Task: structure prediction
Amino acid sequence: MPEELIQDSKNTDGDIDTEDLASDKIPSLQQRRILHALETDDVRAHFETTLDNQLVLNMGPQHPATHGVLQLVLSLDGETVVNTIPVLGFLHRGYEKLAENMTFHEFIPHTDRLDYLSPLANNVGYILAVEKLLKIEATPRAQYIRTMCCEMARLTSHLVWMGSMAMDVGALTVFLWTFSEREKILDILDILTGVRFTTTYTRVGGLALDMSDECIARLKEFIDNFIPRLEDCRKLIERNKIFINRCEGVGHITKEDAISLGFTGPNLRATGVERDLRKDEPYLVYPQLDFEVPTLTEGDTLARYYVRIREMYESDKLLKQLLQKLPGGPINTPDAKQVLPDKGEVYTKMEELIHDFMIVNFGNTPEKGAEAYQAIEAAKGELGFYIISDGKGYPFRLKIRSPSFVNLGVLPRLLKGAMISDIVAIIGSLDPVMGEADK
Amino acid sequence: MPELLDTIKEKFTPQNGFDGVSFSEIINNTMMEVPKERILEIARILRDDFKFEQLKDIVSVDRFTKNERFECIYNLYSLEHKYRMFMKVKLDSKNPEVESLFPIWQSANWSEREAYDMMGIKFLNHPDLRRMYMMEEYEYHPLRKDYPLMGLPGAVLLPKK
Result:
């Protein structure tokens, strides 16, 4: 042990007055002594004031409970979180820059990779913004199928969230059950779009494929059996004392803070604000459908859980209505200048070949200087696209308003004063997806 | 909600001391352009008097013109009136700076950090203006129009062996 440290330890072993402890000199000395003890494996070292030091703990980016590559730098006092700094950008792919260098159609596959748990909702949200910019509207059948896509995407996203959040707080079985339900929806998407995950389903003015009768029959069968399955999953955790104790009152946020910090979607509705873009800024065919907006006032993790569970019931209700009302007719708008023609016609007719060539190579051309913002109520909250056009085939600027990004900004406020073991429950209840937050 | 828009237009006239505030239309929404010196004051009026409780997003734009190259478009939403409006402020080409709106809406914190990272717009009196996505030592702002799509070779510092 260095000499000055030995001398210091002699001093502290004897009488040490409180003024010295409070002064700036002692803590640094204390830290040096702790470091020295750690370096020399001195197990006999004894420190009176170790707990006064704040511990800085790094959580992630490779941590299973952060739902992706989220890094949290936590400052801890004992087991209590004093401050949190979320670090983003590990999944940053620069989509806004990429979008400026490709046509509107070429960007659709990239929207799949934003919120990769509900790619269909991203496809629909993006294409609605582009159609608003181009001032065209899809046919009724396409609108109905798109609305169905949004609700199926909400179900898949909420099912993954339910399983992973239950897993975060220690209930493993639910994860397997909800994933087997999600697998059934993915099978339906396989028939509908041709793939399970990266759907790339929408097109400007229409859809890539029509909904087949087999798909409708499978969807009907799924919806009829879904609610009993969901009840089974709920029984596993909702009457479980451990689950309730770990969620109730944890991660509480007041209504005012939630509004000011920019919460949207289920997280905002859990604080007692009844706002849903499906009702407030109606898009697609939502005005013709009958559904409720589940709202709770508690503002804690358990409230966020119940809001999402009730949303699943509403989605089920909506899908039933949509299947009943689904009209016939074409899925693509007859606008030859902006909408991709049918492939069969491209190979046989001159006019269609020219239009196909122009749209694929030079892109859709909105009015010069046109600006449009379209937001949809995605599973996580408000997903919006702000597009500025300069009259060329590429967007001049495309800004993605991703709900997960804004929701994660609330995390430092939610984690303040929470325990270490509550961190995973709070992150789980926010339902962040890093593909969307990092863009 | 056209009535709300009319009252906003009546409030921000030169007679009431608001010079340089103008209104324009984008598709299905209204854009309000404000002078950057008075943005904090106008934002406070919008929040308190017209109940725009939420700042949903900040869109930073690089127009790539000689004067007033940069723009910030604030996406405001009123939960009470269920109404959305956009607020635009034009910024210098050389030295884009604007007052931070963090005192009005707390969600401006991360949105402004993102705009600073991607477009290099400085927000004065921001509590914690660090880069959002890129690493701290990165020198460029990737969403500017003069930044190449393929990136710049050597811009990312790699750890030494």
